[in-house]
Structures
1.
Amino acid sequence: MTEDLPELRASDTDRERVAEILRDALAEGRLAMEEFDERLDAAYRARTYGELAPLTADLPVAAAAPAPLSLRKESGAPAGWSERIVSGTDGSAVGVGIMGGFQRKGRWTIGRRFTAVGVMGGGEIDLREANFAGPEVVITCWALMGGVQIMVPPGVHVDVRGLGIMGGFDAREDGEPAEPGAPRVVVKGLALMGGVSVERKLPRAERRRLKEERRRLKEDGRKELD
């Protein structure tokens, strides 16, 4: 039973099954739209069964009649990570923002070693749709009266080792457990009167899909009331 192994990693399929239960509960009037939104967000952010279980604990299983959550995990990387780790490719290695800024976003490949410089300027390193030149990439940040923002997708392990002097390294995402097969991102360097932040966000396509799904459900709810 899932409650016996609360720390077992949940898969995308598991999260989607919980989302189906929530959608059916909304359609049946068991959840208000506001509560549905909150639970759906939590479902897609959940990393373990222990985080998923409370989202449907007060809903009857018959609301969606889903297949039971799988406790048998396949070996190897989940679909997606194996394609995104492209060993043998150099990838992008440098981003510089001096009294200005730089961006690395969308479909790109980050090298095993990436140096980010922000001097009275800044940079944005978005890894949500990026490929990785190896299973571990090291991002060295030098922020002098500037800043570097790093965005990583759910499932990636982050290790923050930087030093902040009259500035700071945001280590809130440091140490979060990784999904099997996901890359490891090491962030180090120096922030002097500046800052380096690491934030975990859903990919843009997934955020758009959730937004569109909420819009559709609200429209369906209004049609049922008419």
2.
Amino acid sequence: MNSELTILDLFLQASLLVKLVMLILLGMSIASWAMIIKRSQVLNSAERNAAQFEDRFWSGIDLSQLYQEIQDRKEELSGSERIFYSGFKEFARLHRSNGRVPEAVMEGTGRAMRVSLSKEVDELETNLPFLATVGSISPYIGLFGTVWGIMTAFIALGAVKQATLAMVAPGIAEALVATAMGLFAAIPAVMFYNRLTNKVTKLEHTYVTFMEEFSSILHRQAFAANQE
């Protein structure tokens, strides 16, 4: 047995099916890392934007002025800004037409903000199901390659008269590489899926809290205007 065998040597000596399994796992690993990096950047940016907007929102600025400031870039809004924009826009529209029925104004405003919240959360969760899938199935794909490789090695071993460990060891080693690659793809996918999901949950909580606080402000304005 050649003690200098490398991972590349084991790959080249593997059967066609085991090679295919390894290539699939390598592709899944590369794709999952690309999504991990992209989602991490998106979620970190969302956290910064939410903090910056809430600082601006609670700075004492007039809500109408804040609405006018962000209206020019309404297509670029995300997170708390989008929830604020959709809520204030609907509030202003309903207040003009149904100002004497504040309950209807607040119901429509809340509905508009909930729609925006749902869209934001869906966008934040983009590609996370893929990471969950990679983490779930990669070990089984690798195990399939290992089982097939070991089976092939023992079938070949049965065809010779004198079997030695040196004859079967390379075949078993190359088969076990498939399991190692399955774990290599699965472990980071599972770790970052949990981490990124936790970030999405925290952001969703931030958005919901902001929505409730903003609703309280609009509620006071709607009923104050009705009493006047």
3.
Amino acid sequence: MTSAPPAARPPSGSRGHRRRTVVAALVLVAALVGGTFALTLDGQRDRERERSERTATEAGSGAGERDEALLRLARREKGDPMAVGDVDAPVVMIEYSDFQCPYCGRFARETKPALLREHVEEGVLRIEWRNFPLFGEESERAALAAWAAGQQGKFWEFHDLAYAEPRKRNSGAFSEKAVVAMAKKAGVGDLERFRKDLGGAEGRAALERDRQEGSGLGVSSTPAFLVNGQPILGAQPGSAFTEAVETAEADARRNSEAAGPGAEESSK
């Protein structure tokens, strides 16, 4: 069997010319593509810059409205059993918490006492509690039990007992029997009423009100706080809360002075 004869090769000069032509064409295409890409990128950057400037302008114009909406979340209800501090305090801190949340417990034991002593008792700060149960049936029962204790003026006593020590989540620490015993220890006088309130529709409606408020703000973990509308997430060090309260107080005083005499009275 014989092999086919080798194909005829073009002259070396023709090969070199064709190679140079291809290379030149590739260089030209690359230059054109690169130029087009650069122009496209520059145009995209310009559009993004314009969009960012427009967004910043729109955000700035709506910031005041958003701040006012967050400030209005402070209920400032006289006789609210789940709040502590003067109803007209210049600073309101709203707290969204779960009684089975370990970080909420840490805040309650380590940070809140100083806030009560240094700011609430001085008339600067009001703290408003919002039930925000995240961890199932026992979290909800604890929330409802705290609300029921509050109906007899013992919310904060129940709160302090519930957070007195770390508790293993969903271990029975907030079973019905346990919360009744906790209510008794907290000083709730009418335990029959407590049991009724614990399972009643009014407590459930109050719980859902708090939960919907937090969910509407995007709260997805606890503890979460609003200090005159400014968010603080997690069990931050006490200095973070002190700084937030002092800044909010200064802003509130400044705004009150800018509004002129009589503005504070007319707003009540």
4.
Amino acid sequence: MAKYFDVHPDNPQPRAVRQIADSVREGALIAYPTDSCYALGCGLGSREGVERIRSIRHLDDRHHFTLVCQDFAQLGQFVRVDNDVFRAIKASTPGSYTFILPATREVPRMLQHPKKKTVGVRIPDHVVTQALLSELGEPLLSSTLLLPDEEEPMTQGWEIKDRLDHVVDAVVDSGDCGTEPTTVIDFSGGEAEIVRRGAGDTSRFE
């Protein structure tokens, strides 16, 4: 049965944030809100968490997982970014974008695309997520909480708790968040390729 955390959207309670971060460190799989929609998240090195996300979402090994980072300095530890790409990403973060880039050695092999050796990264513009990332001190390994055969993610914490109570360890509820996933931009080939149009404006990448 999943723990339920009711977290204030503008002033997250430090005690609750610490408890959530501790549970992630202990191997928990959580459902949490972002600036685009709810996501599933676990610790960076949690192989079990990866397999549980794959199972819940019916994903294959070509799926790009996302490292949700606190800031640009943290993001830079996990992906290789040249100057032009740096400027483009810097101008768009924090925000509802996921960027696919070549992974550094800091990224566990199980998270990388098997052929391209790439990974998704993003910096969310969400108070609660940022508080959790600050407390955790490292990225959250994440994937959009979009269930198989459904067109839109769930938006309510209580609904997620009700439906996923048996497959996640904790649900973080800080009110309604959007139904539109991030915009995905692939920079792994050097030029911006729009992979998915979502909550982030694509005009600067066209």
